[in-house]
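Recall that a protein's primary structure is simply its ordered list of amino acids. Everything else, from secondary elements to tertiary packing, is in principle encoded there. The following example makes that idea concrete.
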Amino acid sequence: MKGTDPVAAHYQRAGLLAAFEAGLAALGKSPATVSIDDLAPADEFHIGGREASVEFLDQLGLADGQRVLDVGCGLGGPARFAADRYRVLVSGVDLTPAYIEAGKELTRWTALDGAVDLRVADALSLPFDDASFDAAYMIHVGMNIADKRALFAEVARVLRPGASFGVYDVMRAGDGGSLAYPLPWATTAATCAVAAPDAYREALEAAGFVLLAERARRQFALDFFARLRARLASAKGPPPLGLHLVMGADTPTKIGNMVANIEAGLIAPVEMIARR
């Protein structure tokens, strides 16, 4: 897929790197002094941010020197965190050229370019050899990919036997119902592929994975957004580095709709940990 793909077009942003540089300057930082913790409020583009990354990735049993695949890496925030925390080598792929272009520079700023490689690629056609990785994960990616079976089959192809695979996605909940749009991952239903946990389990099994653990994160999400609202209200505006840099001017609308959909019992984030 190219940058004109409707999913990639939804995420495409002009001037991302300049926005990050301006945010750093407002914090009294520069590319020479920035850390992954400084970037986390903007480059951990998923429910729960860094807190969610820690709790999710800690379950994968990552070990020093392993090769790890980040499917749908975005700006590379979780990839840089994983490389730094677990001393692993991370390859990240994403459809959105602007994310990869900015992510490569952020990786250089944090001196992790020797451990993190980001590239534009389609998750349904990964540019890697069979059995190349010791582990893989995807964070808030499946909501844009309708064919979960093809996705997980491709991930399984590049994983070694016994490798761990983690999924942290927003999934359908309850008996269905129309979602409010726009959302962080889709402007309309045309590019939204949110599916129920059953569909994920079936796709994982079909690809040869064994599901080891599953955890619903609805209350975690609601608590996270309540704290976020409180911080924004007390600060009287967004922080210099925040998700508005990634999502654009309609960030409050997208997040508001997502929270409303979670509160209505239509969607909820879910973690799944599997083994190939």
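The radius of gyration is 18 Å. Strands lie at 67-71, 89-94, 116-120, 133-139, 159-172, 210-216, 267-275.
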